[in-house]
Each structure stands twice: as structure tokens, then as C-alpha cells.
Request: fold
Amino acid sequence: MNKLKQKHTRSPGKLPIFSKEEEEAFVSYISAMSEFGFPLTTQDLRHVIRSFLDRSGRLISYFEKNMPGTLEGLKNNVLPKQAFSLLLKKTLEILEPHLKKNLESGFRKFGIHPCDIESLLQRIARTETHQEAVNATFLDILKATKIACTNGSTEALQSLDYT
Reply:
């Protein structure tokens, strides 16, 4: 309401660290580096800002060692160790009414319980074997070997084409 009546014209929150010109300079350098094939990561940008603050002699009290951002997110796990056991217990309580049914239907689907060999065999990926073609291939090789041996020449054995 005060902002609408022009009684409070400043932005909420902490005062800006950089002037508009400094922010625009950062943006232009970041864009230029990206165009030249050297994009900055968040960590790179944090180091650039820290270096700028150190060179300009500014000390920002709420930055740890003049480094913007916090390391709190890096130090904390996604899930605190103390909360894991409680969360696991709650999850199991939610799943418990359906757990037995889900396990049984999963075992039944794969033919494990009750043991159904036919359903297990149907789930195995089979490749179609062409028994006639395999038999014919081996018969051709045996015939070629027999002909080479009956002629008595060892050269014929060495030059057989098995493809």
C-alpha cells in the first residue's frame, strides 16, 4: 500500500552491492565469455565477484570471506541423517497395507510363486533357431572334408571355404 502511495520507494530486502553500471558490466562480460566459448558456471561467477570485491576494497559482512552465496547447501545432505529412519518408517507404514499383495502379484507375474515353469519359459527371450540351416551347413562342411580326404590331398583341406 505504501509503495502505491509513493511513501516507500525503495526495493525490499538488502541494499544492492553493485551499482547498475557494475551489474551491466558483469552481464556484458559474462555474455562475451559465453559467446567466445567460455561460459561461466555459478561457482566461476562467485569467484569473479569475490575477486572484484577484494580488488575494489569492499568487505560485504554477510558474505563469508567476501564469497557470495552460501556453502550451506553443499554441506547439508538432501535428507538429514536424523530424519531418514523416521521417513523410512512412515513410508513403510503407508506401503504396508498393499505390500503383501504387490509382492505376491509380482512373484506370480514372473512365475516364481506358485512355481509355474511354463510362464517362466515364456518370459525368456528366445531367438528362433533355424535347425535345418544349421544342419545343412554342417553337412556341407563334412561333405567337403570327406571329398578332400578321399582324394588324398592335404592342400584341399587347407583351402576349404567354411562360409
